[in-house]
Design brief:
With 337 residues, this protein is mainly alpha-helical. Helices cover 55% and strands 8% of the residues. Strand 4 (154-156), helix 8 (162-179) and strand 5 (187-189) form a beta-alpha-beta unit. The chain binds tryptophan.
Length: 337
């Protein structure tokens, strides 16, 4: 029944605190989609992926808690979706090994993230492998297992992840060719309609640029962060260009059409930057205040979050377990009698 629906799956690496860019670009659309009963959706915390980049246990733990609480606080319906930690589904690393044995090494050599790390070493005249762990090299295979363990049809991701989806398809195809039709070939879904939010310095909002605004800052701190958004030196009363303004761009991501038109007019009429930033903080607060209160509650009650994740892991294991049994039988490791 439900297994006939289109399966939509995506993972979130558990490093860092969710910020406005994550919310607008990924979390908000995913939660909206999760309400539809037309899809069978899977959302998970990619905590094994986090270990590749982060060797700080407290940071990994804290980030996973924050991300889980964020998704739940924003209204993710855990009855209508499967929400789990990757590490609670041992079938995923098991499948990873089987896939590792069909994935071509040459394919992994071509992964952008790995190549970038090698290139950075070469530029600094280091050994090309300096600081590169096998996790980084095999990253695309673990990601393929995340997806193929559920035979997901569609995978919403950012543009930077499209190559990983191609690799997942390649690995799935190779397995199917060797052992018979087992895996669905997944497709990346890159949504060009959602805004890629700009950060404090006007570049894309991203943890790696250190220019983010955390999603659930209390109002005063939110105002402080918003005040740091870079603007030009135009005085109050001087008309300002909305289309090159980060303040306006973030406004637009939270505003209705009327509110956007209204702010456009304020810009034309020379609204002061300080005032525009005040309005922006109030608008964001309108959308997020309730979820922020819920987030605070959930962060203070990890037991509740754990129960949700455990429920998700159970559902996920049941599904992945069935497929893994098929896979193992296909490769010649059937269950013992
Ligand atoms: N690599 C993804 C990222 O950094 C996170 C991720 C891990 C993922 N496994 C996945 C995304 C499976 C989609 C499907 O954004």
């Amino acid at each position: 029944m439900s297994s006939e629906k289109l399966r939509v799956l995506t993972g979130i690496t558990t490093t860092g605190t969710p910020h406005l860019g994550n919310y607008v670009g990924a979390i908000r659309p995913a939660i909206a989609a999760s309400k539809s009963t037309d899809f069978d959706s899977f959302f998970f915390l990619a905590d094994y992926h986090a270990l590749i980049k982060c060797h700080e246990p407290e940071q990994v733990r804290q980030s996973a808690r924050e991300i889980a609480a964020t998704w739940l606080a924003l209204g993710l319906d855990t009855n209508n979706t499967t929400f789990y930690r990757q590490s609670d589904v041992p079938e995923i690393p098991e499948l990873t090994w089987v896939l590792t044995c069909v994935a071509a090494k040459g394919l992994m050599n071509r992964a952008h993230a790995y190549k970038a790390a090698v290139q950075a070493n070469e530029e600094e005249q280091q050994d090309p492998d300096f600081g590169i762990n096998m996790g980084l090299f095999s990253y695309p295979i673990l990601m393929a297992a995340d997806i193929l363990a559920f035979n997901a049809h569609r995978v919403p991701v950012g543009r930077d992840q499209v190559q990983h989806l191609e690799m997942a398809r390649d690995i799935a195809q190779r397995f199917n060719h060797l052992y018979g039709d087992t895996f669905t070939l997944p497709e990346a879904q890159v949504d060009d309609n959602v805004a890629v939010l700009k950060g404090l310095d006007g570049r894309k909002m991203s943890k790696s640029y250190g220019n983010t605004i955390p999603l659930f800052l209390p109002p005063k701190k939110m105002q402080k962060a918003i005040n740091k958004i870079k603007t030009n030196l135009l005085e109050p009363g001087e008309p300002k260009d909305p289309d090159t303004s980060t303040v306006f761009q973030i406004w637009q991501a939270f505003a209705s059409e009327e509110q956007t038109a209204w702010m456009r007019k304020q810009f034309a009429e020379g609204i002061a930057w300080g005032q525009a930033k005040k309005e922006l903080c109030a608008l964001i607060n309108d959308e997020l205040a309730e979820a922020r209160d819920e987030y605070e509650r959930l962060m203070a009650d990890p037991g509740f979050v754990d129960v949700q994740l455990r429920k998700g892991a159970e559902k996920a294991r049941e599904r992945a377990g069935r497929l893994l049994a098929k896979v193992k039988t296909a490769v010649g490791i059937p269950p013992l009698a």
